[in-house]
Amino acid sequence: MNSVTVVYHREDGAWWAESADAAGWTAAADTFAALQDLVRESLAFHFETEDIKIEEKLDDGAVLTPPTGWFGASVASAFAKISEGFGVAALAPTLGGAPAVARP
Q: Rounded to 10 degrees, what is the CA torsion of 83, 42, 57, 34?
């Protein structure tokens, strides 16, 4: 199983992602939700397997998901799992499609 840390960036109204664990790989999309889908699909293509553990972070270091590889999980259920697993007080998407993390 491949373990990959993905870092998300927001610039000029769009989102993009990169990973030091996937040489030469990047992904970009207009919304955060679309980018998360693209990240999972394109990493599966890059590594030629869907057996990937993905740890997602924002460029400020905030962790969005534990490294568990939730392929096929809905964003809502992923957010629920994160809030339970990390003791996060509140975690929800914002209107702009960006993740919002409220720490206790």
A: -60
| Pair of tokens at residue 45 | 């293509």
pLDDT at 77: 52
What letter would DSSP give residue 18?
E
User: CB count, 10 Å around CB of 29?
Assistant: 17
- The pTM assigned to this predicted structure is 0.64
Per DSSP bridges, beta strands 2-11 and 52-58 are parallel
20 pLDDT tier (thresholds 50, 70, 90): very high
**Tokens found for residue 96:** 């702009």
Question: Closest by alpha carbon to 64, among 52, 81, 48?
Answer: 81
Query: Residue 80 has what pLDDT?
Result: 52
Residue range 60-87: average pLDDT?
A: 57
Give dist(CA 29, CA 10) in Å, integer.
Answer: 10
Contact call for residues 90 and 104 (beta carbons, < 8 A): no
